[in-house]
Design goal:
6-stranded mixed β-sheet, 46% strand, Immunoglobulin-like, 5-stranded antiparallel β-sheet
Length: 700
């Protein structure tokens, strides 16, 4: 049998195949070490890396990590060796006998029996056998060195083309870590039936390709049918390259409000692979220095940082050969800040109330950590404004409608912490309600008109002042607090109607000036008049003067009778009143019964003139004490009478009292009636004298 010689150079066809499989390999990088595909495999099963039958046209992948224990020495099922010359050609076992003769075998033809391949099988397993099928096997020498074999034989080739033909390709993963280091042999049967035949190995790129047929004519001997015999050594490539970083989660050069700062990572190594026990080492920069966490398999870590501390992560990766990649670092720095910023808000400089919806809010904001980021604002039960740069003050519009208004103010720092502040102010846009009454309803001239105001401020800020103005008099009065009383004095002797205007403000300056009213002033008693309607007393005396028709009043200072010692003169106080509302002249006359006492009595100041008559002028509503001197010329009881007549109205009135004149007895006075004692009379005269000198006004 003619065999091909080992070839390590690739023809154009094999270059094309290698390129195709190289693309497939790239798509499955790092997942396998070697692949094999049988494009053709006649007269025998395929066993690629496994005793289980494979199929042509399918690519099989495997790693160099074990020894395959099946193979040509397996005499079971389809893996058994086929007897030499068991071709199934002829009924006389011609080829078997030839084989026996050629090999000097002792195969007993009588033992032939039916089998899946022919009807004449000789089981002389010592000399007359050959392998059946196509085998791809790995044999482990060391962890890094393997024997790689591809071999087999077709069952038969009886003059038909393709009966013993086999072809295929095997590729070492160029992204893997194994390479072909030596070739023992590479051979495949020649073919004289038009099939290609070759065996090539490219050590540089790790590709093996083959094709073989048969050279027999007719029904060939087994040794002339297709055969394949390839053997080489593959070894692991030394890994000197470090792993590469695939991902490293960077918390970022930011402030955060969460002091649990996390990262995750992964590395890869396309040669020896990542270490299975200690692939990763993490470093943490905090408190001003680096701290190693040690080698381990974890791929995530959360560090609880100290507030305001700078945090950076570092990473190293190690492969199975001990190569270390890195270090790699996250962006400096990540810092946490969980402290809220400080803030205050004041509406209209802490004013309790306002009468307009447009206000000024004064703001403060500080942050000891990450710093202020932005601010936003809202009224009660409304949406927030967009976040915006903070300012020390800004104008703001309150919600409409009187009542308490709250403005909310939120400050956010760079880390995301927020602080909420608020201030409340009373919005009062409503003028106060005012009600004013004047008392009395009709005012006498020269007297005061009293104004009573009742103020109510529904807006809530409270009444401030009520001003009442009479423009025609150029007079006004003010009531602090809005409610209360004030007075305006009326001119003398006027008869007129006056209009007054009310101006009321609340504490915010809302004004109610809608109230106006009027009242009447009439002439006081004593004023000139023509008609009685002009007068407050509704009486115009003689069409000349206002006044009420009332008589004067006269009375003794005591209603108890007097006792006078014989021969003595006593001063009796008399009270004279003018109840009229105007100045009046009053005439006083005295009478006694018996008349003797009348002849010896006289008014103070009238002793040498009229004696018992006195003219007195009194101002309106005034009174005066007048002394009457009475002489006790004769013992007895006397009735003393006094008459008072108004010279303006002629109205008069009189009064009377009893006077007793008695004898002196042992320097004391005795009387048969229980009247005043001497000491009591002295006290009365002293009081009368004091009053007389204090209030007396007389007109002679």
């Amino acid at each position: 049998m003619k065999k091909t010689t080992p070839v390590i150079h690739m023809n154009k066809r094999n270059i094309l195949l290698s390129a195709i499989y190289f693309i497939l390999i790239i798509n499955n990088a790092h997942a396998w070490d070697v692949s094999v595909i049988f494009d053709n495999a006649r007269e025998g099963p395929i066993r690629p890396f496994t005793p289980i039958h494979g199929t042509t046209g399918t690519t099989y992948y495997a790693d160099f990590d074990t020894t395959d224990t099946f193979g040509p020495d397996d005499n079971t099922n389809d893996g058994r060796y086929v007897e030499l010359c068991s071709t199934g050609c002829g009924t006389e076992c011609v080829w078997a006998n030839n084989c026996r003769t050629f090999l000097s075998g002792t195969c007993n033809a009588g033992t032939c029996s039916n089998n899946p391949y022919d009807n004449c099988v000789c089981f002389d397993m010592t000399t007359c056998y050959r392998p059946n099928g196509w085998f791809v096997q790995r044999t482990k020498v060391t962890n890094n060195k393997y024997i790689y074999k591809i071999n087999g034989k077709a069952h038969a080739d009886c003059m038909f083309a393709n009966h013993g033909f086999v072809s295929g390709t095997s590729i070492l993963n160029p992204a893997g870590s194994f390479q072909i280091t030596s070739i023992d042999y590479c051979s495949a049967n020649n073919d004289n039936k038009g099939q290609p035949h070759y065996c090539t190995i490219n050590m540089a790129i790790g590709t093996i390709s083959w094709a073989g047929g048969s050279t027999c004519n007719g029904c060939c001997c087994c040794e002339d049918s297709g055969g394949l015999n390839i053997k080489m050594t593959v070894e692991k490539i030394a890994d000197t390259n470090p792993p590469t970083l695939v991902s490293f989660t960077d918390p970022g050069n930011v402030w955060t409000d969460n002091c649990d700062i996390s990262t995750s990572w992964s590395c890869s190594d396309s040669e020896s692979g990542m270490s299975t026990t200690t692939p990763y080492k993490l470093y943490i920069y905090n408190s001003g220095s680096w701290h190693a966490q040690g080698w381990g398999t974890h791929t995530t870590y959360t560090h609880t940082a100290t507030e305001f501390d700078n945090i950076v992560f570092g990473l190293e990766c190690r492969d199975n050969e001990g190569n270390i990649g890195g270090p790699w670092y996250t962006t400096q720095y990540t810092k946490c800040d969980t402290t809220k910023p400080s803030s205050t808000i004041r509406i209209n400089n802490n004013a309790p109330a306002t009468k307009t919806t447009d206000v000024t809010i004064t703001l403060s904001y500080t942050d000891i950590g990450s710093g202020i980021n932005n601010c936003r604002y809202r009224n009660n039960d409304s949406i927030w404004t967009i976040a915006q740069p903070c300012t020390p003050s800004k104008t703001w519009t309150l919600e409409t409608g009187d009542g308490l208004k709250t403005v909310y103010y939120e400050v956010k720092d760079i880390a995301g912490n927020t602080n909420l502040s608020s201030d409340t102010i009373l919005l009062d846009t409503t003028p106060p309600h005012i009600q004013v009454n004047v008392n009395p309803k009709i005012v006498a001239s020269s007297q005061y008109a009293t104004f009573t105001a009742n103020c109510n401020d529904a807006g809530g800020s409270g009444c401030s002042t009520t001003n009442i103005t009479i423009p025609s008099l150029n007079e006004q009065c003010e009531i602090t607090g809005g409610s209360g009383t004030c007075q305006i004095k009326m001119p003398e002797c006027v008869y007129d109607t006056y209009t007054y205007y009310v101006n009321t403000t609340d504490n915010l300056g809302n004004i109610n000036d809608s109230v106006l009213d009027s009242f009447e002033v009439k002439k006081a008693d004593g004023c000139e008049c023509i008609l009685s309607d002009e007068c407050i007393s509704i009486s115009c005396l003689d069409y000349t003067m206002c006044g009420a028709l009332v008589p004067p009043e006269v009375d003794f200072s005591t209603n108890i009778g007097l006792t006078i010692a014989l021969g003595q003169t006593e001063a009796i106080p008399i009270i004279l009143k003018n109840p009229a509302g105007f100045e009046d002249t009053i005439k006083l006359d005295i009478y006694t019964d018996p008349p003797l006492m009348q002849q010896t009595s006289y008014f103070e100041g009238e002793k040498y003139s009229k004696r018992t008559t006195k003219i007195v002028r009194l101002k309106a509503n005034t009174e005066e004490y007048i002394l009457l001197h009475v002489f006790g010329g004769k013992t007895g009881t006397y009735h003393l009478m006094i008459n008072a007549q108004s010279l303006s109205t002629t109205l008069q009135v009189y009064n009377r009292t009893t006077v007793k004149v008695v004898l002196k007895d042992n320097q004391d006075i005795h009387s048969n009636t229980p009247e005043l004692s001497f000491i009591s009379m002295v006290i009365v005269f002293i009081i009368a004298y004091i009053s007389y000198n204090t209030k007396h006004t007389s007109i002679n």
